[in-house]
Write a structure and sequence with these properties.
Elements lengths: L3 H14 L3 E7 L15 E7 L2 H6 L10 E5 L15 E8 L4 E8 L3 H4 L7 E5 L22 H23 L3 H28 L12 H4 L2 H9 L6 H26 L5 H16 L11
Parallel strand pairs: 2-5
Antiparallel strand pairs: 1-2, 1-6, 3-4, 4-5
Helix pairs in contact: 4-5, 4-8, 4-9, 5-8, 7-8, 8-9
Length: about 290
């Protein structure tokens, strides 16, 4: 596996010898002073260039970076909603030696604006002294932000509104339907609330990382262990247990955030939905009414 020094020499060596590349900067985890270093960190690189389209038309120029396992060109994918721009283009490359480069080619005309768009930016090369001064890298933009009352309320509403969908799917023995709602709708709200709890505990001075990957560093042990229990095996009793655990965990975390931030928590929704879930779990599969009269 090529070392960081070898990779940086390669990235900058290509830039220095290509007259179309006028500036280079890096951002992401490698410039974040609070992220632990490891062998899987990507190189998030931006080349500010005079001719983006030239790098799009020539698909072979990236071979100079090394042998690839797989590559993605997100600007050409029909799976992503964003419309491609003639001012930027990305090559995401996973190499055979384990290294990965996420390389963005950016038109020189927007370089001055874009270099300041991410506070984790470190300028590596500026051939023409084109770029403005860039402050030392900071993860400030990625820290948990203190919610306002509207965001808190809507997070609670979304969480409790979708919980019965998952219960319905479990009663119907439609485990994929239930898990989809748990993972795509319920869990994001739970992670958002847990992130706010971390914010309360730390004065909103830290980042919990993408997908909440650093939550274990800041949450109370019992809250972290509760979160792990929500990642269930794919059998119905386990998924039911996980769903109810989500509700209990959300209740504790949201009450903490509400108390510290002066928000109103919807206790009635909480109690009614949790009671409904427990009722549905015990409902016979042959039932003809949810609540018999």
């Amino acid at each position: 596996m090529r070392t960081q020094q070898q990779m940086m020499e390669l990235i900058l060596g290509i830039a220095r010898t290509d007259p179309r590349i006028r500036a280079v900067w890096m951002n992401g985890s490698r410039t974040n002073p609070h992220v632990p270093r490891d062998i899987f960190q990507d190189y998030d690189i931006v080349y500010a260039v005079t001719d983006v389209q030239g790098y799009v038309d020539d698909r072979n120029w990236i071979d100079v970076f090394g042998e690839r396992i797989v590559m993605q060109r997100p600007d050409e994918s029909v799976l992503f909603d964003e419309k491609p721009s003639p001012l930027r283009y990305a090559y995401l490359m996973q190499f055979a030696d384990g290294n990965r480069i996420d390389l963005t080619l950016l038109d020189l005309s927007i370089a001055r604006r874009e270099v300041l768009s991410d506070k984790l930016t470190v300028v590596l090369l500026d051939k023409d002294s084109l770029l403005p001064p860039v402050p030392p890298p900071s993860d400030e933009d990625y820290r948990v932000k203190k919610p306002d009352a509207a965001h808190f309320s809507d997070c609670c509403n979304e969480f409790w509104w979708v919980m019965p969908y998952a219960a319905k799917g479990l009663w119907r023995r439609e485990i994929l339907f239930a898990k989809e709602h748990m993972e795509q709708n319920i869990r994001p709200m739970l992670l958002m609330m847990l992130g706010w709890e971390v914010g309360v505990l730390t004065g909103f001075t830290v980042s919990v990382g993408k997908c909440g990957k650093y939550l274990d560093k800041y949450l109370p042990k019992e809250r972290w262990e509760g979160l792990l229990r929500t990642y269930s095996a794919a059998d119905y009793p386990s998924v039911w247990d996980a769903l109810l655990e989500m509700g209990e965990l959300f209740h504790v975390s949201a009450c903490k955030v509400a108390q510290e931030c002066g928000f109103s928590y919807p206790y009635e929704d909480d109690c009614r939905v949790m009671a409904h879930l427990r009722h549905v779990r015990q409902l016979p599969s042959t039932a003809t009414e949810i609540y018999p009269s």
